[in-house]
Design brief:
heterodimer; A: 198 residues; mainly beta; eleven-stranded antiparallel sheet; 1 helix; rod-shaped; B: 210 residues; seven-stranded antiparallel sheet; four-stranded antiparallel sheet; 43% strand; elongated
């Protein structure tokens, strides 16, 4: 009766095995090796052929007048890259995580505002896990008395671990002293898998 | 011999069970090749090309009244790299011509950070921009393919800081430039970008599809 190697359970014959049964053992051995090679291929192909990542963009300007804002999700209309089914047009305000691991989050938010009495613009990366939302990172800008209005450019970035089923949103919250008008011209959100989390 | 799976392994049948030496030789060669191929791919994945440039000198930048691109401010650098040693981080966007052989197709992440202060008075609430720019020559002029900008409005403080990061896509058919630039609208005085500013790039592989 063949025995097996301790880690990958590769069958090997012993001195009690009949020579004429070598065909049975050789097929069991080849199949066991094939299983391990398949498992290795799955890991290598996942990491080197296609890294899970998504880059989505809001291309239509979003303009509003606000004094005391609320935390609101950006909604995206264009996909630049999606290698792991991370964006669903039916739920365009989020990036889905289908492969667990450590991810880099990046965003570009460009726009302008008229008026002078600005208070703050906050951008947040938010995680939703099992129906519970939490903030991963907040980037905030404040402007006071900038005559002639402003053009703003913000590029928040963060790194965090995620599990299958999580989703990521990018939110904004604008406050002004007396109800100023702000326009987002272009907003891009990206999530790129960096590696496994042990 | 009976084929097993799709890697080229075989096993013995009831009629050739004596060919054990040939079986072991063939399977050993198949396993050797499959393991080496995966090892090479994993080594490439775990050692993606990257470069980090750190400024070693301060740079004074005059006010710019227009939008970006700003001014490259890496006059002297310390460069760390595991595969981009041929890339030069210069002080002018035109000095970073990169051929497609050095920039394979795929997605790149680039970013930078800097601290700065006015050399004299501060124009209150005037804007400063730190930008990563990704451009290519076309039709005799420089075309800006993509950029990431972090803007700060300084309100009469003793200096400020900014960081910027973004993903950039190379199609493998162009010569690309990339640069980290600084611009400001501090009319009251010039500004100094301090030594220690960082500019970094990492490549995410050629298999990333768009």
């Amino acid at each position: 009766m063949a025995t097996c190697t301790p880690i990958y359970q590769l069958p090997v014959p012993t001195g009690d095995d009949r020579p004429c049964d070598i065909d049975d053992w050789s097929c069991a051995f080849a199949e066991a090796v094939e299983t391990q090679l398949d498992a290795l291929d799955a890991v290598v192909n996942r990491t080197t052929t296609t890294i899970p990542m998504a880059q989505v963009v809001m291309t239509e300007p979003l303009s509003f007048t606000e004094q005391v804002g609320s935390v609101t999700n950006f909604v995206f209309d264009t996909v630049l890259a999606d290698t792991d089914n991370m964006f669903d047009a039916a739920e365009p305000d989020r990036i889905l995580v289908n492969t667990a691991g450590l991810y880099s989050l990046t965003a570009r938010v460009y726009g302008d505002a008229v008026g002078t009495n600005f208070a703050s613009l906050s951008l947040r990366f938010r995680l939703n896990r099992d129906g519970v939302a939490s903030t991963l990172f907040t980037e905030q800008r404040g402007w006071t008395n900038v005559a002639g209005g402003i053009n703003f450019y913000m590029t928040p970035s963060a790194v965090s671990s995620f599990v299958d089923g999580d989703f990521i949103t990018l939110t904004y919250n604008f406050n002004s002293t007396s109800g100023e008008t702000l326009t987002f011209r272009r907003v891009q959100l990206g999530a790129t898998w960096l590696g496994d989390v042990p | 011999m009976i084929p097993v799976g799709d890697h080229g392994l075989t096993c013995l049948s009831g009629t050739d069970f004596a060919a054990i030496a040939l079986l072991m030789q063939q399977n050993a060669e198949v396993i050797d090749g499959a393991l080496q191929a995966n090892l090479s791919s994993l080594q490439e994945y775990s050692n993606r090309p990257w470069a980090i440039a750190t400024t070693t000198a301060t740079t004074t930048v005059a006010q710019t009244t227009g939008e970006w691109p700003g001014t490259g401010f890496f006059s002297a650098i310390s460069l760390l790299s595991n595969g981009y040693s041929q890339v030069g981080f210069g002080i002018d966007i035109t000095s970073q011509t990169i051929s497609p052989t050095l920039h394979p197709a795929g997605w790149y992440m680039m970013g930078g950070s800097a601290t700065f202060q006015a050399t004299g008075a501060v124009t209150a609430n005037s804007r400063r921009d730190l930008a990563v720019e990704w451009a290519f020559p076309e039709g005799g002029i420089t075309q800006y393919g993509e950029y990431s900008i972090s803007s700060v409005y300084e309100s009469n403080t003793a200096g400020d800081s900014a960081s910027v990061a973004g993903m950039f896509f190379a199609d493998g058919t162009r010569n690309y430039f990339y640069d980290l630039t600084w611009s400001h609208r501090n009319a009251a005085s010039t500004m100094t970008a301090n030594a220690g500013a960082r500019f970094w790039i990492v490549y995410f592989g050629s298999g990333v599809t768009v």
